[in-house]
Please model this.
Amino acid sequence: MVKLFFLLATLIAISEGRSVTNRVPWCIPRGGATSNYGSQLEGVKGSVLEKAGEAIEELRRSIVDEGLIVEGFGAKADTICNQALEDFAQAAPDAGDDVNVASTYDKKLEELEAAVDAQLQILYFRSLSLLREKALTRFQMASKTSGTSEYEAMLSADSQFSQEAEDATRTGSDWDYAAERTYLQSVMNSIAESGKKATDVQMKSAQQQQTAMQFLQSQQQMIQQLQMQLYGQNTPWNVGFAYRIPDTNFNLQGSYQQGKTNVQLSCVPDEYAPMLGPSGFTNGVGPGNLGLSLNLSI
Model:
């Protein structure tokens, strides 16, 4: 538009026979005023950002370095941002009634708020990550230790995460924790499904073991029935005896179990014979060389 006015003025001057060399058209505004004002605002913005950075650094050490969850992070972020805007408004030179100067002021004010908000939003995302891990831990402990179901534990963890995330969000900002909440719900659903699959596997394993035990019991009953058919009615008596023939290494053993008699003669040296003397402890049948056992099954 300025160029159009300048061209029009030039044509009028030429038509009137006047020279246009080294003359400034009336329609071009004086330069330098807006530029100097913008430089002053840039300096003020830099000093305000440096002051706000000190408070942001303190929050960063707590959240990033120490891994702590800062309670009321949203309110603290609002305080830092509002304080920065207030300091800028107090330190900035007066814009006056010039529209261009006022526009420059508004632009620098928006740049300042965006710069402070960007640094705080990074810490906000880190806080959401810590809150998500806390909610997952709470969900796993509740589903294992308490009597609540996994569904109730999931609802409780999701509700507490939403409250804490809302507390960490700046009022009136575009900060949003919907993505972190969706991811948390997805992870909890996966854990619940894995736990259900593990429970199903344990139940199937227990059923298989029970089936195997029932099969073994049925086989044992069949064996007992066959024994009854072959050897007749089983007696509840189980008798065993052992007798060492005096002055010999012969040991006679016998047993009667489930209707069957078993007699065994073995040659076993008596290791304790030298301790009993040349004639042994006794000459004949006695407690020293006769053993009896009796089992009665009812």
User: Anything to note?
Assistant: The first strand starts at residue 237 and ends at 244.
